[in-house]
Amino acid sequence: MLANFTFSISVALPIFLIMLSGFILKEKGIITASFTKTANFIVFYIALPVKLFNSVSQSSVRNNFDLKFILFTIAGTCLSVILVTIFSLLFVKDKSKTGSFIHGAFRGNFVYIGFSLLENVMGSIPVKASLIVAFVVPVYNILGVLILILSNVERNSEQNKIKHALKNIITNPFIVAIFFGIIASLLKIKLPVLIQNTFSYFDLMATPLALLAIGATFQLDKLFVDILPAVLATILKLFILPTLAVLAGSFLAFSADELFLVYILFGVPSAISSYIISSAMGGDENLAASIVMMTTLFSVISLTLFVFVFKSFALV
Hints:
Elements: H1 2-27, H2 33-57, H3 61-64, H4 67-91, H5 98-106, H6 110-122, H7 127-151, H8 158-171, H9 173-186, H10 193-216, H11 227-251, H12 256-267, H13 272-280, H14 285-312
Helix pairs in contact: 1-6, 1-10, 1-14, 2-9, 2-10, 4-5, 4-7, 4-11, 5-7, 5-11, 5-14, 6-12, 7-8, 7-9, 11-12, 11-14, 13-14
């Protein structure tokens, strides 16, 4: 048992130590707002797309494409929104906060934090994880926009907001990278060694730079704003939703690796983009920021606990 607990700590805690380093460096003035903005740009538009392209293009998409699993992740995401919406109707009294509550409680930081944990546990990013991004990220964006439009009292220019969201989905660098990765895999295209080596450096840079940038965006003063709905969203995001998802995956006889991937998809902390979108679309940005901060901090406990359970049952 001690060995399993040590393993769990060793794969979960380093992720948060890197984020903590980003926060401390920001507080010391070493990492500036300008650096954080630049780092986020590099991660979002270059490093992570390269990582996704490498993951997909260097493996057999034909052998790893699993329609059942992909449909499960899409259905699970939609059902999680329904469940969170029910909780919001029961426990969130201020209806102006509903959109941010639902968005923060269902949308996870799968690519940034999820990929980091997958690398720590499995040694690399499974191709199936990269393929999921191509399907789940658009669902995240569509549901997020619809939720905020339907719950927002300021409903001006909804059509423009939907068009803008659809444009962002089509031009999302993750989706574009996976699309070209699929083509390269199906056509068995091998890049020149010079380009492969260059891409490998961006691949290695993606995870630590992303975690540093996340830490540098932390604002602890936002942590205790709207604390009661933020606590409920945290419990839903980190414990209830991933537990239900893993149980459903077990019922469908998914493999151990697939179950762990299901946990990562549904159990990672809320994505920073939930705060960004809530702020841009007239949602309650203070609640959105509080949910992001709280889920990220308490995910140190939840990730360690779930990895420990998986390890104890020899599932990782």
